[in-house]
Amino acid sequence: MNQDEIKFLIKKYNNQTASTEEKKAVEEWYESINGEVLAQDQFKQEETKKLILKNITSKIDEKKSRQKPKLRKLFYAQFFKAAVVLLVLLAGIYLYIKQTDAVPKHVSYSSKKTNIIPGGNNAVLLLADGSQIILNKTSDGQIADQSGVKVVKTKSGELIYRFTGSSNPKSTAINTIITPRGGQYHLVLVDGTEAWLNAGSSIKFPTAFTGAERKVEVRGEVYFEVAKNKAKPFIVHTDQSEIKVLGTHFNINTYDDEEYQRTTLLEGSIEIKRGNQKVLIKPGQQANINEKSELIKIKEVEDLEAIIAWKNGYFQFEKSDLQSVMRQVSRWYNTDVIYNGTIPTKQYTGKIPRSINATKLIEMLSFSGIHCQIQHNQITVNPK
């Protein structure tokens, strides 16, 4: 396959006419190819492009040689997978390979604090007595003991609640974990339920679940893997809904600056209640709630991995508008975003590691037509 044919398919991806299968294939091929390419940091851009192209076409030829005539359609499906990944590799990976090369002309930086760092494990634990523990500044090991439950911070930076004695204590204490902008945290509740908090989020919970239900309250974005207990349902309260769970995996996004509260189910089943309305959603579905309406709208989700990409260390956009993209950036980098001129109405699709600093981030965004500059700890978005 020559470069013109591959460029044609990349254009299809850029125009957002690629199929769901083609989009999913991008990350599969990204993972299989980037290890080979990233190790070769001595290559210059053109040489890197040729290497990527060679890798892709060799994989295509290898697959083609093994195909029987009746499986030719399958070969073309694999070719699409190879072709669409080229977009990601050429538009993004090169930024890792040659960090010292020239920055695109439309990306500019101020001399004052251009290196805005990404977020990390950063949270505050509020105990029942009102005391505060800054978790990223606290040593590993036991940090509290409340009503027969010890609180332990592990070396990997997670917080675990464990019984010190009886698993049925007579009293309990209420704790809250808050992640600021630029923070995230992993929590294991005393029943074994795990919760991952995104930036600018919180969860309020008892140190032990003593009643007929396991109740918590959340704000922001939290991903749950709920321990199964049919006799004691897990209840999540938000400003706009109540979510009832027996044991399942789901993500809830309830940021105040988002148009909808979105609850996405990955495994199991959950019941969502808003006012007098109750709905049961299945894996692969998302419940959307708008504060201006009592209705709960259900939609199918094409790519569940995109919903929890933040938990796995990525920004992942699926036909997202510019403001949605930049809200995520603002939370994770703890920086304000300013728009200079008219806000473009284009939609964006892509995946970017959350581990890179803001300077590198805006370089990568520039390849998607999002032109920014950093100045005075702020990101300014320019029309062009």
Automatic annotation (TrEMBL):
PANTHER family: PERIPLASMIC SIGNAL SENSOR AND SIGMA FACTOR ACTIVATOR FECR-RELATED (PTHR30273), PROTEIN FECR (PTHR30273:SF2)
GO molecular function terms attached to this record: sigma factor antagonist activity
Superkingdom: Bacteria
Keyword Membrane tagged: yes
Protein name per UniProt: FecR family protein
Pfam families: FecR (PF04773), FecR_C (PF16344)
FecR protein domain mapped to chain residues: 176-271
Alphabetically ordered keywords of this record: Membrane, Transmembrane, Transmembrane helix
Domain Protein FecR C-terminal: 314-381
Coiled coil: none
Membrane among keywords: yes
Bilayer-spanning residue ranges: 74-97
